[in-house]
Each structure stands twice: as structure tokens, then as C-alpha cells.
Amino acid sequence: PMKTVAVLGGGIGGLAASYYLCKSPQVTKVIVLESSSRFGGWLWSTRRSDGAVFEHGPRGIRPTGAVGRNTLNMVDDLGLAGDVLPVTYSHVASKNRYLYVNKQLHRMPSGISGLLRTVPPFSRPILWSVGMEILVKKSKEDDESIHSFVSRRLGKELADIAVDSLCRGVFAGDCRKLSVRSCFPVLYNAEQRRGSLALGMLLGSGTVPVVPARPLAQRSAKESWAQWSLRRGVESLPESITGFLQKSSRVELHRHAVVKQICPSASGWKIHLEDGAVSADHIISALPAKALSSTLPSSCQPLIQELQDIATVTVAVVNLEYDGSILPVMGFGHLVPSSEDRSLLGIVYDSVPFPEHNKPNGHTTRLTVMMGGAWFQEDFGDPETVKEEHLLQRATEAVQTHLGVTSVPSWSWVALERDCIPQYYLGHHRRVDSMRTFIKKKNLSLSLIGSSYDGVSVNDVIFSGRTAVEELLGIV
Ligand SMILES: Cc1cc2nc3c(=O)[nH]c(=O)nc-3n(C[C@H](O)[C@H](O)[C@H](O)COP(=O)(O)OP(=O)(O)OC[C@H]3O[C@@H](n4cnc5c(N)ncnc54)[C@H](O)[C@@H]3O)c2cc1C
Ligand SMILES: C=Cc1c2[nH]c(c1C)Cc1[nH]c(c(CCC(=O)O)c1C)Cc1[nH]c(c(C)c1CCC(=O)O)Cc1[nH]c(c(C)c1C=C)C2
Asked: Could you tell me which residue ranges the Amine oxidase domain spans (predicted)?
């Protein structure tokens, strides 16, 4: 029987865990501790007074797979179904994604399945690479970089351009360092279980958790949604969960509550804040790994070091608004491979998938330029000292050279997002296993959730909250 659970961190991971805890009668009290002045973490939207919406974090959430369905079920349950803005597979924003290579935009197929179709600027049909791929022997290594994996199976060209860009557009990271096993388990499992990506895609190669679709998820499947957002921005999701939690007398929500230290005690944990302390029987940490590391007592080595070793990258996110329809192409946006421009990751054409977020009757175009990531320091230096004006100038210059837009933006917002995306480097799975083994061995009543461990997407993070609660309550 669980009594009090403390949830550290009020990003989407912590909120999701609290939501699932709240649904269980076994839990008497949930204490959410968030250091900042708002809940939601990287889910962060600006709503301008004229009605325009700008996203500084995630902007489109995928509805597919078990984790996608799970999030839609939550959205449905929270009563947000009427606010969903779906983008179907047939929409131009789903069909058109571009690569900026050799100073030109090239249309590419989207997603991982896109690797299996023909894409310029490549020199041979992808079908050829895929045909040959079936003949490539499977690796005996227990992990490999994404770049090495794709080079070996599909050829260097696809690795250098398509996969390099894909990793920048999801992890803001370097595919030469990222782990295929942890970042793209579907690809890793396809090779391990079927001997080939092509066969893996055809026959399936994973064990998918069972998540039945409730009405909204059913609608998403029927209407073939490729992604969705919310009328007042993605931040409505954490706001709505917070509203749900506030209605429960068993939940305490604390903002401005910086967790300083956590100490195992006879009955569970003592959690020290800047002012005062709270006790809990169990802790669900939804903090970034490094933040959790700095709160643990020295008796928790080597866990402290392993948490510390999970790297993160900093991304500069620049939202721009232009008067009129200024785009030369329609689509989701474009990515830039590291060989073309190391620190310019890509540009999202937000107005195309989500015109509802434009200023009403305004005829404007909203773009988001993403910069830095694994290449941040190299190009911009120390995030502490980089100037906003410099980031804004780099962003508007890229819009000019990549898209031929010569006009000046009518509105802009620069956000320097420090350590916002964890990087799952080679051996990440071993590190995560080792941390969880240590926790079990030491009988620590502690769950690790959030983007540092089992996937960075909003869906993955929400699902990690659900899994931790089910394990805690003995549901699985
Ligand atoms: C620019 C950008 C674009 C993205 N785009 C997408 C996308 O399109 N689709 C998608 O699925 N995902 C996207 N993501 C990824 C996704 O948004 C994140 O991985 C996810 O929001 C992480 O949630 P989290 O709860 O694990 O962490 P966080 O949001 O980092 O939450 C952690 C919380 O802990 C708090 N905290 C830190 N230290 C302490 C402390 N000592 N005490 C108390 N509280 C503390 C923080 O203030 C924060 O609120 C994007 C991320 C970024 C940055
Ligand atoms: C240019 C930088 C970034 C862009 N988005 C992100 C970064 C770092 C962050 C991000 N984007 C996606 C996810 C979640 C993945 C998931 O599993 O759901 C994250 C953390 C979604 C995504 N965006 C692109 C792709 C190929 C994906 C994967 C899922 C899918 O196929 O929908 C492409 C892409 N991202 C950005 C641009 C400009 C772009 C391509 C045109 C911005």
C-alpha cells in the first residue's frame, strides 16, 4: 500500500506521472515539486494578445503507435478533444519535408519509413540500397552509432545526408555519436530479430505494448493523422493536466520548489527544498538526469556519476513572423545536414501544418529556426555569453539564403534552451540498466522517468510516467 509519492519536476513527465498516480485509489498523497514558476517544462507556447500562437518547444505530436495512442487517450480524458488540431497524412505538411543540400531545397520522404523510398539529392534509387540491405549480415555488436549502422546497411550517402539530418531534426544531435539501439530501437530490433530493416518493417520486429484506442485515438486512426497540436498551443496539455490535478484533494502542486537534496530515510525519503523539507514513501524523479544527480547523497555513487554522464545539448529556438505568404515551397520545413552548415539545424514552416495559430485574418507566415544542438559551442561559444541579437541575425540570414525571403520579420522571439535535449550516446542502454539495477539492489524507492532515459518525444516521456506508476502500484 503506497502512501505519499513525491514527484520531482513538473515538466510533462512529472505531470503525466502525477496524473496516473491520481487515478489510483492506492495513493493517499502526491506532492509535485517544480523549481520554476510554471509547469510544463519544455512544453512552452506564447499566445500573443491578437490570437497568434508561437511554440518554443514541441509543436507537433505523433498520434501513431502505442505511445501516441496513449497520449491521445489522456487528451480525450482531459476533455481536450475539441481543441485538437490534426494534420493528416495527405496534408502538404506531411507529404513535403525538405533537405537543404548544396544551397538548394530538395523534397524528401518523411519519417523513418522515408528511408525506404526514393529521395533526391541522392545519386541512386533508394530501392537499390534497400534491396542490397537484405543481403547485409547482421551485426554482433550490442550497440552502434546511428551513422555506422546506416552506412553499413544502407550506404554512406544515406547516412551522411538523410540520417545526419534526421538526427538533427529529432535530437539536435550528431548521428556519429548517438546510439542506434537507444535512439531508434525499431531499426536496431529489425536487424537483430529479422536480420534486415526491410524485413523488419514488413514483418514487424518488436513487442508493442497494448494500448486500446479510446474515441479520439480511434478518430485519429480513421482520419489518418500524422501529427496534432492544440488550438491554444501544446502548452495547453500541461495546463490541462495541472487543472485536473488541482481538483484532487490528494495532490499538492508546488512551484518555486527547488529540490536541493534527497536522503533515503527509514520509511522512504526526506526531500530538502530551499526552505524546508518534505517526506515521502516513494520518489518519482522526472528531473533531467544531471539535476537528479546533484540531489543524491554520496552513498548513491555510482548512480550519481552515471546520471551526470548523460549528456545534453543546447538549442537556440527563434520564432519569426513575416507579413504575407513568403514561402517558396509548402511543407513541414527543412533540415540542413551538418556538412552543409554545422550549427543551423533546420527551419519549421509552422504556418503550413498549423495555420490556425496565425494571427486571425492577418495573412502572415510563422517560421521557427532551430540552431546549435551538438554544434552549439563550436559556432556560438558559451551559451552564457551568446547575444540574442546574434542568434536572431543568424536565423534571419538563414531564412534569407535558404528560402529567398528578403523582408524583415514583423515579430520575433529568441529562446536559448539550455540542455534541453538529452543525447543517448553509445552504451546508453547499459548505463540505464545499470542505474535501475543499482536502485533495485539498494532497495531505493525511486523511479527514473522523463526524457533522460527511455525516449525524448512527448509521447515517450508521458509513457515513461505511466510505466513507472504501473510498476510502483504493481499493475504490471
Ligand atoms: C526545441 C524542442 C523541440 C521539441 N520538439 C518536439 C516535438 O516536435 N515532438 C516531440 O514529441 N518532442 C519534442 N521535443 C522533446 C520534448 O519536448 C521533451 O523531451 C520533453 O518535453 C521533456 O519532458 P520532461 O518532463 O522529461 O523534462 P523537462 O521538460 O525538462 O521537465 C523537467 C522539469 O524539472 C524542473 N526542475 C529541474 N531541476 C529541478 C529541481 N532541482 N527541483 C525541482 N524541479 C526541477 C524543470 O524546471 C522542468 O520543469 C522538443 C524539445 C525541444 C527542446
Ligand atoms: C531542427 C531541429 C529540430 C526540429 N524538431 C526537433 C529538433 C531538435 C525536435 C523533435 N522533432 C520531433 C521530435 C519527436 C520525435 C518523435 O519520436 O515523435 C523531436 C524531439 C519530430 C520530428 N521532426 C522531424 C522528424 C523527421 C521527426 C520524427 C518523427 C516524424 O517523422 O514525424 C523533422 C524536422 N524537425 C525539425 C525540422 C525543421 C524538421 C524537418 C523538416 C525541427
From this structure: 12-473
